[in-house]
From TrEMBL:
Alphabetical list of PANTHER family matching this protein: ACYLTRANSFERASE, TEICHOIC ACID D-ALANYLTRANSFERASE
InterPro entries referenced in this protein's UniProt entry, alphabetically: Ac/AlaTfrase_AlgI/DltB, AlgI, MB_O-acyltransferase, MBOAT_fam
Signal peptide: none
Listed transmembrane segments: 6-25, 37-56, 76-92, 120-139, 151-170, 190-207, 331-349, 361-382, 414-434, 446-464
Pfam families: MBOAT
Name of the protein described by the UniProt record: Peptidoglycan O-acetyltransferase
Protein species of origin: Mucisphaera calidilacus
Family: Belongs to the membrane-bound acyltransferase family.
Membrane topology qualifier: Multi-pass membrane protein
GO-annotated molecular function: acyltransferase activity
Domain of life: Bacteria
Cellular component, GO annotation: plasma membrane
Length: 474
């Protein structure tokens, strides 16, 4: 049940209708919990069992962690949570990857090993709900949070359908307190929530799917090698596509939650206006980068053990972040590139103490352009189907296309790509210091209505192939 489907539209309106009826708060929460299970079961009903396993495990582990005093016992309880959650994640997401690499390794040693075929179906959104549930046990282990007294509240925290399968990854400290009192959106929240849903669907349906995805596919899913111009067009199209696709989901999820009276944090803050890569990760997939920072980078030592150890910690964090995205060496390389970017940026800041003071508009613009170009260079590994394909496209990006390279993007598609991606970059630059809500509040009323009307019209007339949200595979 995808956000851009009519089925979800009817489902959401029914849930919203029931939520606004004069029932008890306990009944409304139970209604949201069942709706969340139905929403997830629409993809693959048996996989709901995984949600139950994670929920029940971390609910009990959290309660026992809170009352247990011995450190060795507390570590054992935390290990139980890690083994259950990461065990599920490892089996469904990485078992085939690990087996394929083991076969490749032993074949290098001259051993012909043919394992049985693993027919494993990847549960949608497993990386998201596993990380969300783990954050609860981590916070209780660190004595930062108290366990909730209500099992059903905790189950709703894990499974809340707007952000269940593709985030944002919400912390218990943000969501669970909202379940203590009845939540019902007022008129302002309801209108803003629906507006966010319209913005998110416009990003997904009109920009990502209709305008940018065909250009990306013409370069990355084509047997014909792309020349330099096509490689840049396809890569910039993918940069725009993945932003509009993922930010579109997050914006729709935030809007849907707000319509139900709940507040969940932003996941994107105009990332293509980032001035440096640390700034990029404060703006891109904020809930994941925050999770990796708080529960992995800081646990490894953060920046408290000298520059060399800090660099190692950064690289380890980004490599694991890359692997979180998918069971492929391409994702690991993508994460490694961002780790390298962050390390080099940190070295520059240490070598040039005045770096933080370089805030002139021209220098900032140069830094933003450089950040975007290097980000696009890394996106190649994220999108390419194989390592060899990524190398071929990056060679084209660097002006060294292989023999027989052709222009694989048509003239009209090239013009639309430049216009759409250029518009995205301009909007990000213009709004980098404010929120979308603040921009809309500052705008005249007729401008707001004009923007909403144009987006609704574009969604209504959009035609083309329906594509799943990219982050569903993670």
């Amino acid at each position: 049940m995808s956000f851009d489907s009519y089925t979800f539209g009817l489902f959401f309106l029914l849930v919203l209708f029931l939520h606004r009826l004069p029932f008890s708060w306990k009944f409304k929460k139970l209604n949201l919990l069942w709706a969340s299970y139905i929403f997830y079961a629409a993809w693959n009903p048996p996989m709901v069992v995984l949600l139950w396993i994670s929920t029940i495990t971390d609910w009990w582990v959290g309660r026992w962690l809170y009352v247990t005093r011995g450190e060795s016992k507390r570590r054992l309880l935390l290990t139980v949570s890690l083994l259950v959650n990461l065990g599920m994640l490892s089996y469904f997401k990485y078992a085939s990857f690990l087996l394929d690499n083991f076969v490749a390794f032993v074949s290098m040693l001259g051993v012909a090993y043919r394992p049985p075929e693993l027919d494993i179906v990847l549960p949608v959104g497993i990386s998201f709900f596993v990380f969300q549930s783990l954050s609860y046990t981590f916070d209780i282990y660190r004595r930062r949070e108290h366990p909730t007294d209500s099992f059903f509240d905790y189950a709703l925290f894990v499974t809340f359908f707007p952000q269940l399968v593709a985030g944002p990854i919400v912390r218990s400290a943000t969501f669970l307190p909202q379940l203590g009192e009845p939540r019902r959106a007022d008129a302002a929240q309801l209108s803003w929530g629906f507006l966010l849903m319209i913005v998110g669907l416009f990003q997904k349906v009109c920009l990502a799917d209709n305008l940018l995805a065909p250009v990306t596919e013409a370069v990355y899913d084509n047997d014909v090698l792309s020349n330099t111009a096509s490689a840049w067009l396809g890569t910039m199209a993918f940069a725009g596509q993945i932003y509009c696709d993922f930010a579109g989901y997050s914006t729709t999820a935030i809007g849907a939650a707000l319509c139900l009276g709940f507040s969940i944090p932003d996941n994107f803050r105009f990332p293509y206006a980032a001035c440096g890569f640390s700034d990029f990760w404060r703006r891109w997939h904020i809930s994941l980068s925050g999770w990796l920072r708080d529960y992995l980078y800081i646990s490894l030592g953060g920046n408290r053990m000298g520059q060399l150890r800090t660099s190692v910690n950064l690289m380890m964090t980004m490599l694991i972040g890359g692997l979180w995205h998918g069971a492929s060496w391409n994702f690991v390389i993508w994460g490694g590139l961002h780790g390298l970017y962050l390390i080099v940026e940190r070295w520059i800041r240490n070598l040039i103490p005045e770096f933080e003071g370089l805030t002139g508009s021209l220098l900032r613009l140069v830094a933003i352009v450089v950040t975007f170009l290097f980000t696009c260079f890394a996106w190649v590994f994220f999108r390419a189907s194989a390592f060899g394909d990524a190398i071929a496209i990056q060679s084209s990006l660097l002006g060294m296309p292989g023999e027989g390279a052709e222009m694989t993007v048509s003239g009209s598609r090239a013009m639309s790509t430049v216009a759409v991606v250029g518009s995205i970059l301009l909007v990000h630059y213009a709004l980098r210091g404010i929120s979308l809500e603040e921009f809309m509040r500052r705008s005249p009323l007729f401008v707001r209505w004009l923007i909403v009307g144009l987006m609704l019209f574009a969604i209504a007339v959009s035609t083309g192939e329906d594509r799943a949200f990219i982050y569903f595979q993670f």
